[in-house]
Write a structure and sequence with these properties.
33% of the residues lie in helices and 21% in strands. It is α/β, with parallel strands linked by helices and 325 residues long. It has one domain: P-loop containing nucleotide triphosphate hydrolases (Rossmann fold). Strand 2 and strand 3 form a beta hairpin. Helix 3 (61-73) crosses helix 4 and helix 6 runs parallel beside helix 9 (207-224). It is globular, with a radius of gyration of 22 Å. It starts with 7 loop residues before the first helix and ends with a strand.
């Protein structure tokens, strides 16, 4: 049977085929494999995953985000030197409003210096590093600061347009979305009035509805853009009684985690709609009191989701780099 002429383009698109090699090249180009530094090395993370990094303050949560960002913005190779990066952009959404740009600057400089085999100190007057590469990497580090949940939601709603604009400018596509920290506005949102608004067609404004909107916008983003989401969250430790006194649930707030273990060493205060979005969860602890090396803070990491029977330890040096132990 002969195909109609006007339907030929449609039929050619439907019947188009590709080899396994072509399919693999296309998939790896759209969703490249990213080798993340410790403590992410235990699990294979890919685009579409939502990783929650839980820990008290301070426990190097932001520094872990910075290390992941550097691995993404560095190129795989530059002027014959191997850096092992992805040469893709990252977007850092700062909800904690305490991000210091000098921390990523020092860590990036040190990574470039170490890859080139230069041993001179950053504080030394004779130190040299590839400044052209340094500037090129920082161009791939996109930053946005939000001061409340409404600014955060507005950022997420306009993120699709912004990512499309970055692509049109010829820049690299954003591969990692970094959120620091997801529970920053918890107490502000709890103070929102839970009564219905004047317009009965609109939902009442509350912590639950705000978090639901955030989750919906992230889910929509993941459908269109192949990105990995890394989000930090502060943890409240202590016994069950004292923690309950600190965080009291409202009747409309659900905090049970249907996907995580029930014997968590901390009280999870985020609503269940956020917890159901999380695909991986890492717990950080500070071991300053137990560390023999008092010059550098020591931390431990443990995967709670999925649960792994192993722990990793690392310290933080003066250049804001994590040093595995």
């Amino acid at each position: 049977m002969q195909q109609p002429r006007d339907m030929t383009p449609a039929f050619s698109w439907i019947t188009a085929d590709e080899t396994a090699e072509q399919a693999l090249v296309r998939i790896l180009t759209e969703r490249p494999f990213l080798i993340l530094p410790p403590p992410f090395h235990r699990l294979p993370l890919r685009a579409g995953n939502v990783v929650e990094i839980v820990g008290p303050s301070p426990s190097a949560k932001t520094l872990i985000l910075i290390q992941a960002a550097i691995n993404c913005i560095l190129p795989k190779e530059w002027k014959g030197v191997s850096y092992g990066g992805l040469e893709r952009a990252v977007l850092f959404i700062d909800l904690d409003c305490r991000f210091d740009v000098s921390s990523i600057s020092r860590a990036l400089q040190r990574r470039i210096i170490e890859a080139n085999g230069l041993r001179s100190s950053l504080k030394g007057s004779g130190n040299e590093y590839d400044k052209e590469l340094f500037v090129a990497c920082l161009r791939r580090f996109l930053y946005r600061r939000c001061y409340n949940s409404f600014e955060f939601i507005a950022t997420l709603k306009t993120l699709h347009h912004r990512l499309h604009q970055e692509k049109e400018k010829g820049g690299s596509a954003v591969y990692i979305l970094l959120i620091d920290s997801i529970g920053a506005f918890y107490w502000m949102d709890r103070a929102l009035p839970s009564s219905s608004t004047r317009n009965n067609n609109r939902k009442s404004l509350s912590l639950q509805t705000v978090v639901e909107t955030v989750v919906q916008e992230i889910q929509r983003l993941l459908v269109v853009h192949p990105i990995l989401v890394l989000a930090t969250k502060s943890a409240v430790f202590g016994d069950k009684q004292s923690t309950t006194d600190v965080i009291r649930k409202r009747p409309d707030e659900k905090t049970s985690d249907p996907r995580g273990p029930q014997n968590k060493p901390y009280r999870d205060f985020m609503p269940s709609v956020w917890q159901s979005l999380v695909s991986h969860r890492m717990l950080l602890r500070s071991l300053d009191g137990e560390s023999k090396n008092q010059n550098r803070p020591t931390f431990s990491t443990e995967w709670l989701l999925p649960s792994l029977n192993s722990m990793d330890y690392f310290t933080v040096n003066d250049d804001c780099l994590l040093i595995p132990k």
